[in-house]
Write a structure and sequence with these properties.
heterodimer, A: mainly beta, seven-stranded mixed beta sheet, four-stranded antiparallel beta sheet, 11 strands, about 55% strand, B: mainly beta, six-stranded mixed beta sheet, globular
Chain lengths: ~110, ~120
C-alpha cells in the first residue's frame, strides 16, 4: 500500500504571496490532518478533515485554511505569507474512526523570503 | 489544554548503552499514547503505540515503552542502542475530541545521538 504523499516537497515564496500544498492519504483513509513543524515551536496541529469537512482546528490564524476532496485528498492554503510561516508542513492520514494511528507523509518544506 | 513534556532535549550515548526517554502528559481522561521517530532526512515513523491493555508495549527495532497511568507517564526504553538509532524522538498523545476525530499533541522532541 502506498504511503502518504505530499507535493511539492520544497517551496520558496516571498512575503505576501499565497501557497497551496497538497496531500494524498493512504488508500482507504478518510481523515487527513495537517501539522506545522518548526525548530522553535515543534510540531503543532493545524486542522483535521474527515469526509470533506473540517472536524478539528488548531490555534492558527485564518490565513491558514484547507479543504478535502471526495477522494480524501487534501489541500492546505496559506495566504499573505509571513517570514514566520517558514516550516515543514506535515500531512498525516488515518482511517478516521476513533483514536486511530496516524501515518505521516514526508512533508513540504516551505521557505518564505 | 493537554500538553506533553519530554524532559531530555538532547541525549548522547555510546553504542550498547541503555536508553530511557521520559514523557509526561497532562490530560486526565482516556488517551492514546505514541512514540514517533524522525531519522535524519526521513519522515515521522511510528515506533510504538498504547491504546489499552498491557501497559508495557513493544515496538519496532527493540524499543518498548511503559504506560504508568498514576504518573501520567509513557517512557521509552531500549536496552542497547545502536548508531542507527540516531534520530529525533517524539512522544505524542491523542484523545477523542468533542466533534469526533482526534489530534496529536506532540512533545518538543528528544534529539538522540549515538556515538560509535
Amino acid at each position: 500500500k502506498a504511503g502518504v504523499t505530499q507535493t511539492p516537497r520544497y517551496l520558496i515564496k516571498t512575503r505576501g504571496q499565497q501557497v497551496t500544498l497538497s496531500c494524498s492519504p493512504i488508500s482507504g483513509h478518510r481523515s487527513v490532518s495537517w501539522y506545522q513543524q518548526t525548530p522553535g515551536q515543534g510540531l503543532q496541529f493545524l486542522f483535521e478533515y474527515f469526509s470533506e469537512t473540517q472536524r478539528n482546528k488548531g490555534n492558527f490564524p485564518g490565513r491558514f485554511s484547507g479543504r478535502q476532496f471526495s477522494n480524501s485528498r487534501s489541500e492546505m492554503n496559506v495566504s499573505t505569507l509571513e517570514l514566520g510561516d517558514s516550516a515543514l508542513y506535515l500531512c498525516a492520514s488515518s482511517q478516521g474512526q476513533g483514536l486511530g494511528e496516524q501515518f505521516f507523509g514526508p512533508g513540504t518544506r516551505l521557505t518564505v523570503l | 489544554a493537554q500538553s506533553v513534556s519530554q524532559h531530555n532535549h538532547h541525549v548522547i550515548l555510546s553504542e550498547a548503552a541503555s536508553l530511557e526517554l521520559g514523557c509526561n502528559y497532562s490530560y486526565g481522561g482516556t488517551v492514546n499514547l505514541f512514540w514517533y521517530v524522525q531519522y535524519p532526512g526521513q519522515h515521522l515513523q511510528l515506533l510504538l503505540k498504547y491504546f489499552s491493555g498491557d501497559p508495557l508495549v513493544k515496538g519496532i527495532k527493540g524499543f518498548e515503552a511503559e504506560f504508568i497511568k498514576s504518573k501520567f507517564s509513557f517512557n521509552l526504553r531500549k536496552p542497547s542502542v545502536q548508531w542507527s538509532d540516531t534520530a529525533e524522538y517524539f512522544c505524542a498523545v491523542t484523545r477523542i475530541l468533542t466533534g469526533g476525530g482526534n489530534k496529536l499533541t506532540f512533545g518538543t522532541g528528544t534529539q538522540l545521538k549515538v556515538e560509535l
